[in-house]
TrEMBL record:
<feature type="domain" description="Glucose-6-phosphate dehydrogenase C-terminal">
    <location>
        <begin position="191"/>
        <end position="475"/>
    </location>
</feature>
<dbReference type="Pfam" id="PF00479">
    <property type="entry name" value="G6PD_N"/>
</dbReference>
<protein>
    <recommendedName>
        <fullName>Glucose-6-phosphate 1-dehydrogenase</fullName>
        <ecNumber>1.1.1.49</ecNumber>
    </recommendedName>
</protein>
<dbReference type="GO" id="GO:0009051">
    <property type="term" value="P:pentose-phosphate shunt, oxidative branch"/>
</dbReference>
<keyword id="KW-0521">NADP</keyword>
<comment type="similarity">
    <text>Belongs to the glucose-6-phosphate dehydrogenase family.</text>
</comment>
<dbReference type="GO" id="GO:0004345">
    <property type="term" value="F:glucose-6-phosphate dehydrogenase activity"/>
</dbReference>
<keyword id="KW-0119">Carbohydrate metabolism</keyword>
<dbReference type="InterPro" id="IPR001282">
    <property type="entry name" value="G6P_DH"/>
</dbReference>
<dbReference type="Pfam" id="PF02781">
    <property type="entry name" value="G6PD_C"/>
</dbReference>
<dbReference type="InterPro" id="IPR022675">
    <property type="entry name" value="G6P_DH_C"/>
</dbReference>
<keyword id="KW-0560">Oxidoreductase</keyword>
<dbReference type="GO" id="GO:0006006">
    <property type="term" value="P:glucose metabolic process"/>
</dbReference>
<dbReference type="InterPro" id="IPR022674">
    <property type="entry name" value="G6P_DH_NAD-bd"/>
</dbReference>
<dbReference type="InterPro" id="IPR036291">
    <property type="entry name" value="NAD(P)-bd_dom_sf"/>
</dbReference>
<comment type="pathway">
    <text>Carbohydrate degradation; pentose phosphate pathway; D-ribulose 5-phosphate from D-glucose 6-phosphate (oxidative stage): step 1/3.</text>
</comment>
<dbReference type="InterPro" id="IPR019796">
    <property type="entry name" value="G6P_DH_AS"/>
</dbReference>
């Protein structure tokens, strides 16, 4: 058969990301028959261990019966080697050659998954390129590289990293993951927006008063403080996940669903966003409360750290469709709940002739990414009963009720599968990255210089009260709670 001879190299196999995300995602794909039955998954890292030791490490995060887990783990082997120098990579190259010689007539697919900090990407890519890229010439063979954020820490460093990687692997081989793009509801945004006639005429500054994109977590940095402290919430969540969601909400309809058509439109809208102005920003850092530690209580975080764990920023898109409409991006750790959602609030209906508070009687479209995927539209309807009052209710599409039989896949398996299929639609192109960094870089430099105030907020709270003022200024009206 001409089945793909697929080899997945997980560089950084002994690390947290690999154990928690990459291998479980690969297991999901394997168990559901999305990977060729002869797939080989080769872990590569500096830790000195053998196949069995790796399997032991991976097992607790895998799911299913012992038999299912064993079948998957049989495909997983390990090669120890360093990220610099030639020796380790040459060892890996030998294993790859041996493996591929067993299916030498079939096209070979090689996926290098870099589950590593970006600081080592250049040397890892150089090692792979120089020592391992001896791909055979059977038609349909390919090599692709998956990389994880953060891609740099500002515009300049991101460009530098992109230059270094770009010299080794051109854009069509590079798959930059932003896992929010692999979420069901993020993908749905694109379909929902561009396939519904009733939305099209209102999707603009005439009818939309403000847009809010919110990411909340009800836990702190928990052991990731060392990593987090060098980045902060703006680099960790806003510059990538939330900026991508904003682009999906605000972009024009692309020419087609071809990955480049779609990404062209995302870049265009991102480039229309002016860099964030400091008066449109509220930063926060959580403090100990309710028996939970404060951010600086994390032993890996310096005691005097001013790194924000919460940020709310208002952005403006300078184009015909959106001029003047505030887009409020808000993200925080150690808040009162875990939730990610997009709220599109329309303007109040003019000449409101019913009983009720006209200003709070607003239509609002809410897309909840997690938990419990849902789309609901706040509608003003007659309150049932003998009175003749208006009230807010919901047209509600709750996924677990509407699609009880569908197991909504996680972002990682979906994105890995896309990369095996060669589909870059849900991966971040270099120019998108550049545009997104451009929006935040001047602000980040001010924050790094200590020029922006960071408000304390208690662990488990709604975040700093100052953020509510930002929402009020953005004309957000809190109508009936859902
Ligand atoms: C990651 C961030 O990209 O996304 C984490 O680095 C964050 O800090 C995570 O916790 C959130 O992802 P999800 O899918 O759980 O919302």
């Amino acid at each position: 058969s001409d089945e793909l001879c697929l080899t997945i190299v997980v560089a950084g196999a002994s690390g947290d990301l690999a154990r928690k995300k990459t291998y479980p995602a690969l297991q999901f794909l394997f168990q559901h028959g999305f990977l060729p039955s002869n797939v080989a998954i080769i872990g590569y890292a500096r830790t000195d261990m053998n196949d069995d030791k790796l399997r032991e490490k991976l097992k607790p995060k895998l799911v299913g019966s012992d038999d299912d887990i064993d079948k998957f783990l049989k495909r997983c082997t390990y090669v120890a080697g360093s990220y610099d120098g030639a020796e380790g990579w040459q060892g890996l190259a030998k294993v790859l050659d041996k493996r591929e010689s067993k299916c030498s007539k079939n096209p070979a697919g090689r996926l290098y998954y870099l589950a590593l900090p970006p600081s080592v990407y250049p040397q890892v890519c150089a090692g792979l390129k120089e020592h391992c890229d001896n791909l055979r010439s059977v038609e349909g063979s390919w090599i692709r590289v998956i990389v994880e954020k953060p891609f740099g820490h500002d515009l300049q460093s991101s460009e530098q990293l992109a230059d270094q990687l770009g010299k080794l692997y051109p854009e069509h081989q590079l798959y930059r993951i932003d896992h929010y793009l692999g979420k069901e509801m993020a993908q749905n945004l694109f379909v929902m927006r561009h396939a519904n006639m009733f939305l099209a005429p209102v999707w603009n500054r005439t009818c939309i008063s403000n847009v809010q994109i919110t990411f909340k977590e009800d836990f702190g940095t928990e052991g990731r403080g060392g990593y987090f402290d060098t980045f902060g919430i703006l680099r960790d969540v806003l510059q990538n996940h939330l900026a991508q969601m904003l682009a999906m909400v605000a972009m024009e309809k692309p020419l087609s669903v071809h990955p480049d058509d779609l990404r062209d439109e995302k870049v265009k809208v991102l480039r229309c966003i002016k860099p964030v102005e400091p008066h449109n920003v509220v930063l926060g850092q959580y403090t100990a409360a309710n028996g939970q530690p404060g951010y600086t209580d994390d032993p890996t975080v310096p005691d005097d750290s001013k790194t924000p764990t919460f940020a709310a920023v208002t952005l403006y898109i300078d184009n015909d469709r959106w001029a003047g409409v505030p887009f409020v991006l808000k993200a925080g750790k150690a808040l009162n709940e875990r939730k990610a959602e997009i709220r599109v609030q329309l303007r109040a209906t003019p000449h409101f002739v019913f009983n009720g508070e006209p200003e709070s009687m607003r239509n609002e479209l809410v897309v909840r990414l997690q938990p419990d995927e849902a789309i609901y539209l706040k509608m003003i309807v007659k309150k049932p009963g003998l009175e003749f009052d208006a009230a807010i209710s919901e047209l509600d599409l709750d996924y677990s009720r509407r699609y009880p039989e569908v197991d909504i896949p996680d972002a990682y398996p979906r994105l890995i599968l896309d990369s095996i299929r060669g589909d870059q639609q849900h991966f971040v192109r270099r120019d998108e990255l550049r545009a997104a960094w451009g929006i935040f870089t001047p602000l980040l430099h001010k924050i790094d210089a200590g020029e922006v105030e960071v408000h304390p907020y208690p662990y488990g709270s709604r975040g700093p009260a100052e953020a509510d003022e930002l929402l009020a200024r953005a004309d957000f009206v809190k109508n009936v709670a859902y």
